[in-house]
Every structure is written in C-alpha cells, then in structure tokens.
Amino acid sequence: MRVAVDEIVYVKADGNYCDLVLINGRSRKMTFQLHHFEDNFKRLKNAGMFIRVGRSLIVNRQYVQIIDLIDQTIVFGGKHLQRVPTAEDLKPKTVASVKDPSDRDIYSVRVSREALKTLKEQLETLTHPE
Fold first, then answer.
1. Rounded Cα–Cα distance for residues 114 and 92 (Å)
2. 80, 23 in Cβ contact below 8 A?
3. Helix, strand or coil for residue 70?
4. CA–CA gap between residue 71 and residue 100 (Å, rounded)
5. How do beta strands 8-14 and 57-60 pair?
6. What would the pLDDT profile of 16-39 be if each residue is shown by its tens digit?
7. Which residues, other chains included, contact 105 with Cβ-Cβ below 8 Å and sequence gap of 6+?
C-alpha cells in the first residue's frame, strides 16, 4: 500500500502491528512495528512533520489541534480531514442538534500526561525556535 505522507494523521502501535490513520478517516492495520515507521519518517525531506509521542504513537504535527493535559488526549483536526461518523451522528436529528460542518476535530487519542507534556514542548520549540 502506498500513501502520501501528508495523508497520514497518526500511527499508533498495537503490539507487533500498527494502525495507520489517514485523513480520509480510514485506518489500516500494518504488519510493522512503530520503530519502522519512525525510521522511515526520519529519512523524509520534511522529517520534522512527524513526532514520536511516548512509546506507542507518532503524530503528524500539522494535524495536532488540541493537547488536553487534563483528559490526557490529543485531538487532531484540520481542513483536509474528513469527519468520521459516530453513533450519535447516525441517529435522526432535529434542526437544533445538527453539528456545525466546520467542526473538524474528528480524531482523538489518549496519551500519558508525560508524553503530552513532551509533545507540547516539542511543538513549542518548532514554532518558536530560540
């Protein structure tokens, strides 16, 4: 399977496999461990696009929207991401309950507080280098 790197939102470890999550909302189970992705991402021209978060996650920094230390989650969003329908979305709706179509925070991942702090520091360093 070939995927453009800018279509990858994040890669999450799952034992000896990884889930590759794409901007179109699809997830692919890959038969590689996370370090294989990390090694390949480091070889890219824009290697800084991907950041390792803890032991089980690599994120595409362009899609990181919220780092929530209290809920210990990363919320991904952006204009290129397609909304993944939830069970709530599939229920019949009244006009008052229709979500704003510009709401693009469609993915979230739970991560340890320490890993989130490290990610926040890395993103701040990348946006405000000294």
1. 40
2. yes
3. coil
4. 23
5. antiparallel
6. 999 999 998 888 999 999 999 999
7. 65, 66, 75, 76, 77
- At 123, which amino acid appears? L
Count of CB atoms situated within 10 Å of the CB of 47: 11
In whole angstroms, give the CA distance from residue 8 to residue 4: 7
**Residues 1, 9: Cα–Cα separation, whole Å:** 16
Whole-number Cα distances in Å, 97 to 91, 93, 94: 11, 6, 5
d(CA 62, CA 48): 10
Read off the pTM: 0.77
CA distance 17 to 12: 9
Q: Tell me which DSSP letter residue 32 carries.
A: S
pLDDT, residue 101, reads 40
CB 110 within 8 A of CB 72: yes
Q: What are phi and psi of 99, to 5 degrees?
A: -75, 155
Rounded CA-CA distance 78/106 in Å is: 9
CA quadruple 47, 48, 54, 58: dihedral sign = negative
